[in-house]
Amino acid sequence: MPLTLLIDTYCAAWSTENAEQRRALLLPIWSDGATYTDPTVHATGVEELLMHIAGIQSKYPGARILRTSDVDVHHGIARFAWTFVMPDGSSLPEGLDIAFLDTGQERIARIIGFFGALKRSSQSVVR
């Protein structure tokens, strides 16, 4: 599976309210024992991640995660930006995910998510 399709399938799993469809999307792309970590949760394995996504979907019915950048990858590590879009078109702060891929780069072994844009440093840059 091309990497962009892998990441878009992952985003689609977050975007569907149907639990069976969510599971069908996530199982082929989520490695055994893979972890998901963001500022609010650390989920180990597909079942914990599915429970977390279900909780987000129940809190924000109809919300979708949309990838907003290209997928950048090197050494089996990918990054991509996304936004959380509400049914009315409004969105929550953007985010950035770092995805660690399995050896064959066919499944996700770990995701670390960050919310919001990075703030510019108030310190001067040393050159």
- Work out the helicity level: 25-40%
Spatial separation of the terminal alpha carbons: 42 Å
Share of β-strand residues: 25-35%
Poorly predicted sequence stretches spanning 5 or more consecutive residues: none
Please report the total strand number as a whole number.
7
By CATH, the topology is Nuclear Transport Factor 2, Chain: A
Oligomer: single chain
Rg to the nearest angstrom?
A: 15 Å
| Structural class computed from helices and strand pairing | alpha+beta
The helix/strand order is HHEEHEEEEE
* Sheet with the most strands, sense and barrel status: 7 strands, mixed
The CATH class assignment is: Alpha Beta
Report the principal-axis shape: globular
